[in-house]
Design brief:
alpha/beta, three-stranded antiparallel β-sheet, 12 strands, DNA polymerase, domain 1, nine-stranded mixed β-sheet, Rossmann fold, single chain, Arc Repressor Mutant, subunit A
């Protein structure tokens, strides 16, 4: 069979109602291919495939014309290069993801997936993260990317976006997993961020082309985020956050779970603190994660990682600030502070404070936020 015909069989099998990812993977393991499953009789499907008679019968029913048309549109989209599809049997399929109990039979993707992306860490968190949490996420993601880790997240607002952006800013690679079809971007305002990810990584989805972002898709999406990764880092999350679902799935998949502590009174710290109470490793710096991950890596990867860590430590040159700059910078927290507060708390005139703030902004240490407020954008 040609490549297109083989992919068509996969798409047809995936379109059978009632056939979940676990059962799909079991059928592939036992029969070898969708073509062999298609050619099997009902008795073989029930005995060899361990299917119920009703599901075996469903596999033998012809697909509706609408489903067939949709499959043809997907094949045409692949043919014209709009996206690509990896099947569970292909050697390029992410091998770590293949080891989970319910790997997606088909992975739609844009961008490029490379061998180095097998050394990945997921960073997830709240969609409405605090300034402090988002700044820490960007820095942590950038530091891990600089060490050679690919950063995985969900392209969502807040912490997810900062995880992707931190890796990109550091010149690293990042993977995004969607809760909608590969031909859609959600949230839509992350279209530019998605394009940047596609240039330096991969955007994945298991959902058919045209699938809209539904709330129940995201927990399903989260198992792929953790499945692609050596471990999952939760930076900020409430006790009801979807990030905790990702952490739970990571544990079920035998992945490491890490959590970033925060202000005990802040609701966004309750999720990470709960994880730490349950045994997640507390993270204050990148090496807290790396030292836990090292034993899982090949000797050559361990040596390379330790070398990179030493290089990063050696090349980190502290930014020298003048006394006025340092004095004002020390008073700017990771949460917004108003211009009036900075003026009234210090001994500088308003024009001097404005001049110092501009200098700190140009050095990339702070930024202005709505309401004439300022906030640190570096945790260093």
């Amino acid at each position: 069979m040609g490549t297109s015909s083989v992919l068509q069989r996969w798409l047809e099998l995936r379109a059978v109602k009632g056939l979940g990812a676990i059962t799909f993977a079991r059928l592939i393991n036992r029969f070898g291919s969708p073509e062999a499953i298609h050619n099997a009789n009902l008795s073989e499907l029930v005995t060899t495939g361990d299917l119920s008679p009703s599901l075996a019968q469903a596999l033998k029913q012809p697909l509706s014309p609408n489903v067939q048309k949709h499959i043809q549109r997907e094949l045409d989209a692949v043919e014209t290069g709009k996206f690509s599809i990896l099947t569970l049997s292909e050697p390029q399929y992410p091998h770590r993801l293949k080891t989970i109990a319910d790997p997606p039979p088909l992975l739609y993707y844009t961008g490029s997936f490379q061998e180095c992306d097998q050394q990945a860490l997921a960073i997830v968190g709240a969609r409405k993260g605090s300034h402090a949490g988002r700044a820490f996420t960007r820095t942590l993601s950038g530091d891990l990317a600089a060490l050679g880790f690919t950063i995985v997240s969900g392209l969502a607002r807040g912490i997810d976006a900062d995880a992707h952006q931190g890796a990109l800013t550091a010149g690293g690679r990042t993977l995004a997993v969607l809760g909608c079809g590969i031909d859609r971007t959600y949230p839509p305002e992350h279209h530019t961020l998605r394009q940047q990810i596609e240039q330096h990584g991969t955007v994945f989805s298991e959902f058919p082309m045209g699938t809209s972002p539904q709330s129940f898709h995201f927990p399903q999406r989260n198992r792929i985020i953790s499945g692609l990764s050596l471990g999952v880092i939760v930076t900020e999350a409430t006790l009801k956050s979807g990030s905790l679902i990702t952490a739970r799935m990571a544990l079920e998949q035998n992945r490491e779970v890490f959590a970033v502590p925060g202000n005990v009174a802040h609701p966004l710290s309750h999720g990470p603190h709960g994880l730490i109470q349950q045994g997640a490793k507390l993270v204050q710096q990148p090496w807290d994660i790396v030292e836990e991950i090292l034993p899982m890596l090949e000797p050559s990867s361990r040596e390379n990682l330790e070398r990179r860590h030493n290089e990063v430590e050696t090349q980190t040159i502290p930014l020298v600030l003048g006394p006025e700059e340092q004095h004002l910078f020390d008073r700017i927290p990771l949460e917004p502070i108003s211009l009036d507060e900075l003026i009234t708390q210090g001994s500088y005139s308003s024009s001097e404070v404005m001049s110092i703030l501009l200098s700190l902004e140009m050095k990339g240490l702070i930024k202005q936020v709505p309401g004439l407020q300022y906030v640190r954008i570096s945790i260093r």
